[in-house]
Design brief:
The protein is an alpha/beta fold. The protein is built from 10 helices and 9 strands. α2 packs antiparallel against α7 and α7 packs across α8.
Length: 328
Amino acid sequence: MKDPEQPVKPVHNEAGIALILVLLVVGALSALLLDLNYTTRVNLHLAENFRDQTRASFLARGTLEAAIALLLEDENFDFDDPESPEDAIWATPNVHEEEGGTIRIQLAIHDEDGKISINDTKNLFLKDSTRSTQLPPLAQNIKYVLALEDTVMDSIQDWIDSDDEVFNFGAENDYYQSLQPPYEIRNGKLWDLTELCQIQGINDTIYFGGTEEFPVGLSGIFTDIGGDDKKRKINVNTAPYEVLAALGDPAFADEVESLRPIESLTDLKGLNDYGTLPKNIREMLDVKSAYFSVDAKVKVNRIVKSVHAVLKRDPNNDSVNIVYWREE
């Protein structure tokens, strides 16, 4: 029989303590492994994105070089016929897609010399609108051909001229400062044609066109290339009907469209309605183009790169030079 006064010896369960330590170590290692796994996967995705961004960037630049090559392969620099795949292979949009869809390349080349320079303050708009209450005839013709409100062309005039006086139905800086958010009027040449969307009276429908009311928008007849300091010609072979009608009249536009491609200036001057055009308009006309815009879009997996560039073709030395470049 045990002595009740004898102390009881404590029971040491060393196996339980070891189990707890093992669980703690396993938990710590699991957390470390999960963190390592997450970090590895993040780094892997970053490496993949960097790889795809690099590939997309170089492919976009390569696509621009392809555009230059297409312009140089044009069979005839004396005149342009965008309807002929043999003469103007650049006029056909190009799409390349690798099997599996991991890489997709889109290329479109647009003839900018078929449009009117928005920055022309000799033939299209007034450099100083305080000296006149009427726009030049070319601007009035555009307003008529596109069925635009007076507000549109008058507001473009105010955006371009350097004075602060409101031109007829236009708007000066006070109007744009009253908007939310407010912004400054340019009071000078447009840097980019999309600035038109900031001008009073111009919305996406008027800018892009493509509707029953506005089949051709302002972006289809205007270009931001050229101006007073860079005289440029308008190619009658690539100009839209609306541009031809604004330069002359519907009869001139119909005659040009029925005879295109017009292969020489001599043929152009031989048109029945050519002699009725004002002298400043006749001096603007040509049958070939020098300026082209390029829009390239490259997709590599989830990465997308876009390139917009302006190219100038010089037929005298068979070269194409980059005038402007923007990568996004």
